[in-house]
Every structure is written in C-alpha cells, then in structure tokens.
Specification:
single chain, alpha/beta, Pectate Lyase C-like, 2 domains, 28-stranded mixed sheet, 6 helices
Length: 475
Amino acid sequence: MCIEERVYRLALMFAVLIAGLCIHFDNLTNINLKNTSMKTFRTLFLALFIFQALGSSVKAQSSWVAPTLPTIPGKTFNIKDYGAVSNDITDNTKAIQDAINAAVNAGGGKVVVPSGTYLSGPLQFASNLNLQIDSDAILKFLPIDKYPGGTIDGTAFISGSKLHDIAVSGKGTIDGQGSAWWPLAKTTNAKRPRMIAFKDCERVLIEQVKLMNSPMFHIAIGGKNSDVTVRNVIIRAPSSTDPVNPSHNTDACDVSGKKILIQNCDVSVGDDDFTCGGGTSDVLITGCTYGNGHGVSIGSPTKGGVSNFTVENCTFTNTEVGIRIKSDRDRGGILNNITYRNLKMTNIGIPILIYAAYMAKDPKYRNLQKITPEIAETYPSAPVTNLTPTYSNISFYNISATAAKGKRAGLIWGLPEAEISNILLENVNIDADNPFGIFFAKDVKLVNCKITTSWGKNKLALTNAKVTIDGKEVK
C-alpha cells in the first residue's frame, strides 16, 4: 500500500473515531435532542465533513493531471496518392514529404502510410499533423550509404521544433535499419540519426506503433515540451552487450518537459529504456514492460531540476539497471519528489542505482558493482555550485527484485559536499549476491524491507551514511 492510500485510510479511521466521540459526548452531557435520528444525522454529518476534508487534502497532494492530447483535423492524405511506391528499392522521401506538405496547406490532417514497405530519408514534421502507419505497413530508413547526410550530418528521420498538436500513430512499424550504424558509436565524429526527434513542442502523441533498430535514439523529445503522451508503443533493438550485433545508444524513450505520460509500453533496447533531463516535472510512467537496456533513468544532465516524477506498476527483466538516477558536478540540478512503487524486477544488474559521479574518470570510482565504503570515502570533495547534483525526497514502495548472479542489490552514492537526503524504502525486497551500498547519504529509512545478500538480511555497506531500519539507527 502506498503512502497516499495509507493516509487516506487513516483519514477514514479518524473520521469514525470522531463520530464515536461525538456520540459518547452526547451521552455524557445528556443533550436532549428531539430524537435519535437527529443525533445520528448530526454525528454522521460531522464525520463525513472531516473525512472529505482530510481525504481531499491527501488527494490534492498526490494528484497528477494527464497531458492534454493533440487535436488534429480528420482529413487524410495517403502517401500513395503522392507517388509513394511499396518496395525495397524506391526512395519515397519526396512523395511522403509532399503528402505532409499537402496536409499542412490544408490546415492539418492525417498522413497515411498504407500496407506495404516504404523506404525514405529524413522527413520534416509540422503542426496539426498525424503520421499514421497502418497495420502491415513498414516505413524504413534508407540504407546508410543512401541516407542523406550520412555520418556527416546524422539528420533525424522524423523531426520538428516548436510544433503543436502532433502525432505518430498506427499499428505499423518504423525500421531504422541500424545495424550498419551501430559500430560507428566508437568512431570519432561519426553522427547517427535519431528516429523521432522533436524539440520544444506542445501536445505530442506517439501511440501503438512499433519502433525498431534505430541508428541512435528511437524517441528523443527534448527541450521545453509540454503535454507529451507515449502509450502502447513497442520499441526494439539488440542489447548493447549482444554478442553478435550489439546496438549502442539506442535509447528507447528520452522525453523532457512538463506533463508527461509513458503508459503500457514494451521496451527492450541497447541503452536507457527511458530517460529525461533537467527542466522536467509532472511525469508518470505506468504499466510498462522493460527488457534489455539501462533502465528507467533520470539524467545525466539534470540542470533545471526534475520533480514530481513517478514510476509505477512496471516490470523489468534482464535489465542492466532497474531504476537509475545519474548526474555529475558539471551538469547537475535539484531532484526531489521522486516516487517508485509496485515494481517487479528479475535478473537485474543493479535494481536501484542513485549516484552523482557519472563522469568519474578514475576506474576505481567507475566500477559501481565493486565500489566499497573504503573506496567511496576517498572520493574527493569539491565546492558546491549551481550545478552540484542535489537529490532529496526519493521514495520506493513495494519493490520486488532479484539481481543477476554476482551483482549487487543496489547503490545510493551521494557527493561528500552534497549528501543524498530523505530516502524511503518501504516494503522493498531484494535478493542479490553482493550488498546494498549507501555512501554520503542521510535520513535514509528502511521500513519492512528484506534485502538479502551474502552478508545476510538487511546488512548494508555504509560510509558517511545515516540509516535507520524499522526505526533503529544502523551503527
């Protein structure tokens, strides 16, 4: 049960108690009401008033307002009417862009990609537009040797900035044909295109499509966005550790801004399954299924802060990290009011990872699986600046996790000059070989938790940490 539910029930119990006291008070004072029904009515009215007041307060504190969906005209523009041809040879960039431009000139509408396979280069999006990829339709990137700009420009496949009321929908597929691009991740100055790249947009919807094998990020919605919804989307790319064809930097869903909903998505990729940067608030990630990837992340850039961020009712299987918060002294901000609840994790590299030394160069500080209290306490301090990562008010409720063989249960690692503060783990059960580390943190509370490692139950690796377990301070 999450804290909002517990408080709400307490409100009900308190109201019942008040009702009982009212009746008892009437009996003691022998107040002569005209009849019993009047007394009962008065008591129940008072109890109801208190319950509503307390309950409304609780609901207000935990309320979340869904993003506003885009409003797009219903007129349709089929890409075949503008010359698109379904095969594995024809470059349909002009035909699809012509359909988009026709929709723009008509005041907006739906550009339809019908059943078939269509090759295309970069497309420029517009406001009041829905790109609908029908079932059995595949929209493919041109091969790397024919993609405009190639590795010099890395132009995004679908892009736009300062737009409003936009959507990518349908039950079809966008295939980035990324295999030829992924080895370039380690090539200096080689640029790779993102699949969907929007910036500073309002009322954005990505729904039902399958996105696969992007050369780089699949969904990248950056800048000052508002009202973004990504739901019922499947995103696939090989793991970054795949022995045959590893994909690198193939983030599934990178969204920053305000009022963001990520719902019922099925994700397995080679980098972050989700991440956001600074200037992000009012986020709900719910009902998602995560496979390979680097987990549901915040950062690394967090300048501008992240707040009112909730992840709930999700599963993670074989994920490198479950929950990850990452930043460093050159890119940090204030993170608070972050909530994770009702999560199930299986065979995870690190179920919970919160740290502020993402760019550490010394190898002994980079091996997060093996860093010990003795190593962590030697991490050098630095002056506090406006870019110092500051993490507080982070809560975990009802988390069940098993770590992969030889891996650790978790790591919470602040900075010597900026301790992580006010962390709550309640009903958190983790089975792992290696211990949960907590370094440079204060006001860390474990309530009804069972973290079982080779060290034993709830035996933590600590340095410069103030921790309580079920109200008792850990020495």
